[in-house]
Amino acid sequence: MSSDRVDYIAPWWTYWLHNFPHINLRFQPIDKTFQPEDENYQQSLIFLGCVAAAGLGLNLLCLAIYLSCLCCCRKEEEEESKKPNSCCVTWSAVAAGLITCVAVGVGFYGNSETNDGVYQMTYSLYNANHTLGGVDSLGITLPFGLKQVSGTMSNMRSGLHQHLARLDEIFATRGDYVQTLQFMQQMADNVIKQLLGLSDWEKAKVDLASIADQSATIEYYRWLTYLLLLILDLIICLLACLGLAKQSRWLLTTMMVFGVLTLVLSWTSLGADLATAVGTSDFCISPDKYIMSKTKDVISADIVHYYLYCNQTLSNPFQQPLAIFQRSLTTMQIQIQGLLQFAVPLFPTAERDLLGIQHLLNSSEASLHQLTALLDCRGLNKDYLDAMVGVCYDGVEGVLYLCLFSILAACAFTVMLCAIPRAWRQIACREQDYDDIDEEDPFNPRARRLGSQNPDHTNMHSFCSYSSSMGSQTSLHPPAPAVSNAPMSEYMNHTALFGGNPQYENVPLIGRGSPPPSYSPTMRATCLSMTEEQRRHFGNDFQA
């Protein structure tokens, strides 16, 4: 960029992105100049998307290796080993939730910033198009019937030519008046010649309104897509946390599938955003150079330089033809005033045409002042600078935040995809433990509920039940000998069967107000190995 340019300075992040390696698909470094039509430059942007695709493949490969190791490595299912795993799953879910919330917040901010930048650019394009449209409309109202300013050069189509032709017939007998009319005609031709000497604006004419409309449409769908992606990430994270809390295997499985899909979308958006940010930064580093290279074969470089820089040292390239136009209008008005003063008394029929020419000159002078204001560089230069600030500041900054959102979302869902299979396995292990318990096990709470409904299990149910109406549940006093009619030696024999020492824990529960004792694994195994006859015998004794 030119050293004297102080109005627009590219932000630092555009220089950082501009310094990214520009490599085509043949792994050859290329020029970093913004050249969207060049095939190698397009390949350099596609290469950035391929880098994101490689990151996605590596991420999925790491997840596949982790899941394979998780499925192949069987750990011992002891109670001490389950607690650390559960804690690991919990903290993984918390970390994934926090990262997702941060990513969604960053994504909303970046999406809003990008939308604001594009909106500012489209608004500036509409203003610039309105200025150029005003120049075209003023070109239509010129008194010479000339549309040179708008590019269609129809010479002497209406207006002054018709009036001068009729006046030439009226003043045919007065040579001095005819000479005055010829002088006015020469001045009109001189103005036309000066205007025809300007650059052909028709070739350089660009419908900025259509460009702004296309940009606004694309931005709307981009904004809506990212909004839906942000909402999808948040919903998936919440449902995954709900599945962990409810220990729902089908919900966790569904969220795992959606998590993989969201992981793919995150890496895809990262590649698209990175390529967009680098390409836009290449343009923002030197926008003047690119614009002048695109218009060098269409319009004069002095005109483009005048509107892009708009310095006080630069002269208006339209100043000379506009000044000639102004002087010609002033001279023609003086001539018309003289004819109205001296020729009308002699030729009353000429008054109508002279007043018509005077009206055209007055309207042309007003149009000339408006045209001079519109052709001044300050209006279009301001629109140009506003567009650059919108794209290179807010736009690129917002895209960078969207890149950060994609990275955080990928990390969050990677952690979530690592935690969900482990949680799913723990839930499966718990259900398997419950399924392995024998339905006839007297220590199984499910067997107690079934025993209360099935009268055939009355004796076995009495083995592990007690009556809360016999006294306080917190009483630990030994039972009185008179509670049971069975001899104490028989109870001691029962104690020997369980492999323990004679304690009050081994005394039958009938008549005790305390809750049932806790049995050791050896006692439980002995009970399960007892025959049906022994169980019936012990049951009868306990009921006795």
TrEMBL record:
Location relative to the cell: Cell membrane
Membrane topology: Multi-pass membrane protein
InterPro entries: Tweety (IPR006990)
Pfam families named among the record's database cross-references: Tweety
Highest taxon of source: Eukaryota
Gene Ontology molecular functions: intracellularly calcium-gated chloride channel activity; volume-sensitive chloride channel activity
Annotated transmembrane regions: 45-67, 88-109, 223-243, 250-270, 398-420
One cellular-component annotation, GO: plasma membrane
Keywords, comma-separated and alphabetical: Cell membrane, Chloride, Chloride channel, Glycoprotein, Ion channel, Ion transport, Membrane, Transmembrane, Transmembrane helix, Transport
Family, per entry: Belongs to the tweety family.
Role, per record: Probable chloride channel.
Name the record gives this protein: Protein tweety homolog
Provenance organism: Oreochromis niloticus (Nile tilapia)
Encoding gene (name): TTYH2
